[in-house]
From TrEMBL:
Belongs to the class-III pyridoxal-phosphate-dependent aminotransferase family. One of its GO terms (molecular function) is transaminase activity. The lineage of its organism: Bacteria, Bacillati, Bacillota, Bacilli, Bacillales. It comes from Lentibacillus populi. It comes from the Bacteria. This is Aspartate aminotransferase family protein. Pfam families: Aminotran_3 (PF00202).
Length: 452
C-alpha cells in the first residue's frame, strides 16, 4: 500500500460507516479497495492497481467508467443551473425533456413519470402511488402489497419490507405492515411444483386468502438481481399480468437493475411483451453518473391522479434534478447512438460460450444463465443430484475472492453462497468478455485445489 492509501484507510476506518458491510470488520480491517478512477470496464485503485469491473459496480455503470460525454453533460447543466426545485409545480428543461423521452421509450402507455433520486425511493413512491390511486377510486381497503421471496427492492422502510431477502428484514426491526411474500415461479405453492412455467400459483394463493379487495399491488423485478439473478420462466410475467387484470391489482415492475439495456432490451418487461401499471427505474438511467430514479405510470393512472384537487404530498428535494436529468438524457442518447443494447445481446452470446467452456471444464459449475449482461453461474458439490456444498464451504465466496485476487470484481449471492453474479458494463467487447472468463476459469481451478 502506498502512503496515501494507508492514510485513507485509517480515515475510512475512523469516520466512514459503510452500507451493507459488517461494521466491526470494516472498523478493524479497513476497506479492501479505494477506487480512484476508471475507463471502460476497468477501474484503478489509489494504490495504482487496475481492476476489471465485472459487476458495473452495483449493476449500474452501464456505459462504463470515464465516459467524457456524461461528465460534459453534467458540467454544462451545472454551469447553467445545477439544481432547480420541482415543488409548487416549478419545472426545468432537462426534467421535461427526459419525461418526454421516457414516455417515448417505455412500453405501452407508460406516459408519465414521478422522479426520485434512487431505486428505494422509487419503490416506496410506487407503493404510495398505488394506494393513492385506489383511494381516489374509492377503494380505501386496497392497501396490501405482494412481493416475491428473493426479490430486492431497496432499503427505505417500505422497500426493505418488500425485499424478500430475510437479512434485510432483520435489520433494526423496521418493517411496515401489509406486505406479503410469494414464492416465485411456482405452479403449486405447497408442493413447490414448477411444472407449468406460466403459473403464478403462490401469488394467486395470497390474493385468494387475503381478498383481492385488500390488495393494492404486486411488485417484482422482471429478472431478480440481488436475490440471485433468477430469470423467470417464459410465460411467468404474462401470467402475473393476467392475474392482476383478473383481480384489479396494479402490477409494479421494478426495473431498477434491468432497465436501460441491461437485459438486451431497453426494459426487461419487453422480453415478454408485458406492460406494467407502474414501472420503477434508477441505476442505468444515468449509468450511475448521477443519482436519479423514478416511477413511470400508465396513462389511466396519470389521468386519475391529475383529477385530484388537493396537494400530492409526496416528493423529494432532488425530484427532477436538472443535472441528473441532463446526464440521463445524454446517457440515453449514447445508448441509442452507439447501439449499446445490440452490443449487450452480442456479448451475451460470447458470455454464454464462455459459460459452456466453464461447465465443460469444471464439474462443480452449473445453472449458468444470462439475459443480456445480467448473468450468473452456480457452484454445487454434485451438480447432477443438485447437492449443494456445505454453507461453511461458501463456494461462490471463495471463487469471487480468487477473482478479486486476480483483479476481477464479481459478487457472491444466494443463501448458500453458491451463486456468482456477473454484470459488466454494456460497452464491454469480445476480448474483455474472454478476459473475464479466463480469470474466472483460473479462480475456479484455485477453488477446486482448496477442496482437495
Ligand atoms: N430495486 C432493485 C431491483 C435494486 O437492485 C436496487 C438496488 O440494488 C434497488 C431497488 C434499490 O435502489 P437504491 O439502492 O438506488 O435505493
Amino acid at each position: 500500500q502506498n502512503l496515501k492509501t494507508m492514510e485513507l484507510i485509517e480515515l475510512d476506518k475512523k469516520h466512514y460507516i459503510h452500507p451493507t458491510t459488517p461494521p466491526k470488520v470494516q472498523a478493524e480491517q479497513g476497506t479492501p479497495l479505494i477506487f480512484a478512477d476508471g475507463k471502460g470496464v476497468y477501474c484503478n485503485s489509489t494504490n495504482g492497481e487496475r481492476y476489471f469491473d465485472g459487476l458495473s459496480m452495483l449493476w449500474n455503470v452501464n456505459l462504463g467508467h470515464g465516459q467524457q460525454e456524461l461528465a460534459e453533460a453534467a458540467k454544462e447543466q451545472m454551469l447553467k443551473m445545477a439544481y432547480a426545485s420541482s415543488f409548487k409545480g416549478y419545472s426545468n428543461e432537462p426534467a421535461i425533456q427526459l419525461a418526454e423521452k421516457l414516455a417515448a421509450l417505455a412500453p405501452g402507455d407508460l406516459n408519465a413519470v414521478f422522479y426520485t433520486s434512487g431505486g428505494s425511493e422509487s419503490n416506496d413512491t410506487a407503493f404510495k402511488l398505488a394506494r393513492f390511486y385506489w383511494s381516489l377510486k374509492g377503494q380505501y381497503k386496497k392497501r396490501k402489497i405482494i412481493a416475491l421471496e428473493n426479490g430486492y427492492h431497496g432499503v427505505t422502510v417500505a422497500a426493505q419490507t418488500a425485499t424478500g431477502i430475510p437479512a434485510f428484514h432483520d435489520f433494526a426491526d423496521s418493517n411496515i405492515a401489509d406486505v406479503f411474500h410469494a414464492k416465485p415461479h411456482l405452479t403449486n405453492c405447497e408442493s413447490g411444483d414448477r411444472h407449468d412455467p406460466n403459473y403464478e400459483g403462490c401469488i394467486r394463493d395470497i390474493v385468494e386468502k387475503e381478498g383481492a379487495e385488500t390488495i393494492a399491488a404486486v411488485i417484482m423485478e422482471p429478472v431478480q438481481g440481488s436475490g440471485g439473478v433468477h430469470i423467470p420462466p417464459k410465460g411467468y410475467l404474462r401470467a402475473v399480468r393476467k392475474l392482476c387484470d383478473e383481480f384489479g391489482i396494479l402490477f409494479i415492475a421494478d426495473e431498477v437493475i434491468c432497465g436501460f439495456g441491461r437485459t438486451g432490451e431497453m426494459f426487461a418487461v419487453e422480453h415478454w411483451d408485458v406492460v406494467p401499471d407502474l414501472m420503477c427505474f434508477a441505476k442505468g438511467v444515468t449509468s450511475g453518473y448521477s443519482q436519479l430514479g423514478g416511477v413511470m405510470m400508465k396513462q389511466s393512472i396519470r389521468d386519475t391522479i391529475v383529477q385530484y384537487e388537493g396537494v400530492l404530498s409526496h416528493g423529494f428535494t432532488y425530484s427532477g434534478h436538472p443535472t441528473a436529468c441532463a446526464v440521463a438524457l445524454k446517457n440515453i442518447e449514447i445508448l441509442e447512438r452507439d447501439h449499446i443494447i445490440e452490443n449487450t445481446s452480442k456479448m451475451e452470446q460470447t458470455l454464454k460460450e464462455g459459460f459452456n467452456y466453464l461447465e465443460d471444464k469444471h464439474s462443480h459449475v452449473t445453472n449458468c444463465r444470462a439475459i443480456g449482461l445480467l448473468a450468473a453461474f452456480e457452484l454445487y458439490e454434485d451438480r447432477d443430484t443438485g447437492k449443494l456444498f456445505d454453507l461453511s464451504v461458501a463456494p461462490a465466496t471463495t471463487v469471487v475472492d480468487e477473482c478479486f485476487d486476480r483483479k476481477l470484481i464479481l459478487r457472491t449471492l444466494g443463501s448458500n453462497r453458491e451463486i456468482v453474479a456477473i454484470a459488466p458494463p454494456l460497452v464491454i467487447n469480445k476480448q474483455e468478455v474472454e478476459e473475464m472468463i479466463t480469470i474466472i476459469d483460473d479462480a475456479i481451478t484455485a477453488f477446486e485445489k482448496k477442496l482437495e
